[in-house]
Design goal:
With 298 residues, the protein is an alpha+beta fold. The chain contains 11 helices and 13 strands. Helix content is 33%, strand content 23%. Helix 9 (236-244) packs antiparallel against helix 10. The model has no long low-confidence stretch (mean pLDDT 96). The chain binds flavin-adenine dinucleotide. Flavin-adenine dinucleotide binds at residues 34-42, 44, 80, 107-108, 112, 115-117, 119-121, 123-124, 128-130, 167, 172-173, 198, 200. Flavin-adenine dinucleotide is lined by residues 34-42, 44, 80, 107-108, 112, 115-117, 119-121, 123-124, 128-130, 167, 172-173, 198, 200.
Length: 298
């Protein structure tokens, strides 16, 4: 039987004219005000009755929020209001960060991606967010405007729990910054969903690898796992195995086992925890094998 949702509650739509004004408003109304971008998470949660904010701040038109800039020396900066379809189409993403486009392409549908943003996917802090893994392995930084002005924080330490981040009242993410990646490198995102399109990941695995003479194995790999822990997960033990032991099928298998051991998944409507664990092992093995085959040829 269809259970009706409470419906969209009443709220005030606020359109600040500067970041300073927006941060101040958010801090003054902590707990009852929220910034939004595409609104594809925000309005669903409001309508379902999970969130009850009195004020919604539309900050997507503030200066610089829709800009994308690439500098070969410093990397790529993607403004917080840039939607997923635009991220996919950016020439520098295709050339230097294709794994981000690969993951963004798996988010919902083309229509939804015209609203959904990269910053929104990250700030929503769902362990299932598809673009978070690629941003983690690409060592992303978040540019944040708060009461004390602008600062930058690493994505690696951003997540505290499901829906919880280090953002403080008044904080607004203004851009996602991707540093220049290793050259050359290879990366892969594998998403397992219940259907081909438009569903959150049962498991998502991102792997990135590159030659590094300072590592005992001669290579470094970075891994990120989606939907298998309260936050997006970096299985550092698996990364360490790949840095230490010469890369072989056995080393990759050991790393995939370590990735599985790092997970603390839950049973939910999409999958059992057991299936998630096994899929992490299998898909990590697959992603690492593909990345390894590419980098050994580079
Ligand atoms: C039908 C449907 C299918 C979906 N499928 C997928 C999927 O396959 N994969 C996936 O990963 N996601 C999926 N989602 C979730 C959602 O579309 C994504 O998480 C999207 O990227 C969110 O971006 P947004 O701009 O719409 O975020 P919003 O709803 O605007 O914001 C999301 C959260 O981030 C906060 N926030 C937004 N911008 C900022 C900012 N600049 N500073 C600080 N906080 C901010 C908001 O307060 C809110 O808490 C789906 C959603 C729907 C409705």
């Amino acid at each position: 039987m269809h259970t009706p949702t409470p419906g969209l509650p009443e709220f005030d739509y606020i359109r600040p004219t500067s970041l300073a004004e927006a941060s101040q408003f958010l801090a003054q109304h902590a707990g009852e005000a929220r910034p939004f971008m595409g609104g594809t998470d925000t309005f669903v949660r409001l309508r379902a009755g999970f969130w009850k904010e009195r004020y919604l701040l539309d900050v997507k038109n503030l200066a610089g929020m829709d800009e994308v800039t690439f500098d070969p020396a410093t990397g790529l900066t993607i403004g917080a209001s840039v939607n997923m379809n635009r991220v996919i189409a950016v020439p520098a993403v295709k050339a230097y960060y294709p794994v981000l486009a690969e993951a963004a392409q798996t988010v919902a549908s083309y229509q939804l991606r015209t609203r959904a943003t990269l910053a929104g996917n990250i700030c929503n802090a769902s362990p299932a967010g598809d673009t978070i893994g690629p941003c983690l392995v690409l060592d992303a930084l978040l540019r944040i405007h708060g009461l004390d002005g602008l600062r930058q924080e690493p994505l690696r330490t951003f997540f505290l729990g499901p829906g919880r981040t280090v953002l403080k009242p008044g904080d607004i993410v203004t851009a996602v910054v991707l540093p220049v990646p290793p050259d050359p490198y290879a990366a892969k995102y594998i998403k397992l969903g219940r259907n081909a399109l438009g569903d959150l990941a049962i498991v998502g695995v991102t792997a990135l690898g590159y030659a590094d003479p300072s590592a005992p194995s001669g290579y470094r790999f970075r891994l990120a796992l989606a939907s298998v822990a309260p936050t997006p997960l970096v299985p550092s033990q698996a990364e360490a195995i790949l840095a230490e032991a010469p890369i072989s099928e056995a080393t990759i298998t050991a790393a995939a086992q370590a990735a599985m051991a790092a997970c603390t998944p839950i049973d939910d409507v999409r999958s059992s925890a057991r299936y998630r664990r096994l899929m992490v092992r299998n898909l990590t093995q697959k992603a690492l094998t593909e990345v390894w085959e590419q980098i050994r040829r580079q």
